[in-house]
Amino acid sequence: MLDQVAELIREVAATVVLPRFRHLAAGEIQQKSPGDVVTIADQEAEKALTRGLTALLPGSTVVGEEAVAADPRVLDRVRNSGAVWIVDPVDGTNNFAAGKTPFAVMVALVQDGEQAASWILDVPGDHLTVAEAGAGAYRDGVRVKARTDDPGASELRGVVARKYLPPRLREIAGANAPQLGVVTAGHHCAGYEYPAVATDEQQFALFWRILPWDHAPGALIIRESGGVVRHLDGSPYHLANSEHGLLIAPNDDVWHTVRDTLFPDVSVL
After folding, report:
1. pLDDT digits (tens, 9 = 90+) for 190-227
2. In terms of residue numbers, what domain contains 186?
3. Which of 19, 198, 215, 269 is 20 to 30 A distant from 244 in Cα terms?
């Protein structure tokens, strides 16, 4: 199943997504909400993935970003029993629509409410990161293990995605961020940020808005690499939990260093 899904994702990326990169007509980009766009590549890739995934696992259901945009009730399927696929057909759509990288195709398989497997294809870089519950995480076929030490706040590099942070928390995080080594706004692509933490390209990423297709695939990769995925109050991430605020890190010590540096007064969270 892991290889079959990977093959499907690569096929959809090669035949639907990449041919439209930097070749989108004006009418093939639409605005779903202020600052959030959708392209014909998102729509057609999701349809192709939905057909392929349900054929691989008859009786399964799909929660896709664009299907939810068309009918918010589709999101309720995340809590279904049995097999549920979570699909982000083009993660980083704003980058894609602007002719920029990175962007990714992401899929997660949920069995009876628990994450079972996930796939993230960095389309321009042609890097595939895969995880299976209890079996580890792999990038391009090589086992990925997150770092186990904490070098200290001043040595840490990572992302604070400020776009959806409430103004007060944005102000607090901005004031305290200089105590960390390097803090960026990120690549506007969760499909890039999660594998980057697993492979130690960066050591943390903080998000506020939590949508299943943005975070379910990467969350399993982080956990299977040995890392942690928690809400800012320290509670573990779960698909059924819609709380805002999610911090990922390679280990517990780094998680606490970053959270406590950015928000030393946890009562504000």
Report:
1. 999 999 999 999 999 999 999 999 999 999 999 999 99
2. 153-268
3. 198
Cβ-Cβ contacts under 8 Å for 87 (sequence gap 6 or more): 46, 49, 50, 53, 62, 63, 64, 65, 106, 107, 213
Backbone angles phi, psi at 23, to 5 degrees: -130, 25
| pTM for the full predicted model | 0.96
8 A C-beta contact, residue 24 and residue 97: yes
Q: Which residues of 63-81 are buried (b: 16+ CB within 10 A; e: fewer)?
A: bbbbbbbeeeebbebbeee
Domains identified in the chain, total number: 2
Cα separation of 45 and 51, whole Å?
A: 10
* One domain for residues 181 and 255: yes
Q: How far apart are CA 120 and CA 194, in angstroms?
A: 9
Give residue for tokens 């294809």: 121
Is the dihedral angle over the CA atoms 60, 137, 99, 209 positive or is it negative? positive
Residues 73 and 165 placed together within one structural domain of the fold: no
217 and 187 in a common domain: yes
Q: Which amino acid is at 162?
A: R
Instruction: Give me the CATH number covering residue 60.
Output: 3.30.540.10
Quick one: 230 and 112 in the same domain? Answer: no
Does residue 262 share a domain with residue 226?
A: yes
Asked if residues 230 and 140 have their Cβ atoms less than 8 Å apart, the reply is no
Last residue of a domain, one of 90, 113, 144: 144
Assess whether 140 and 251 both reside in one domain.
Answer: no
Residue 102, preceding peptide bond in cis (omega within 30° of 0): yes
249-259 residue pLDDT tens:
999 999 999 99
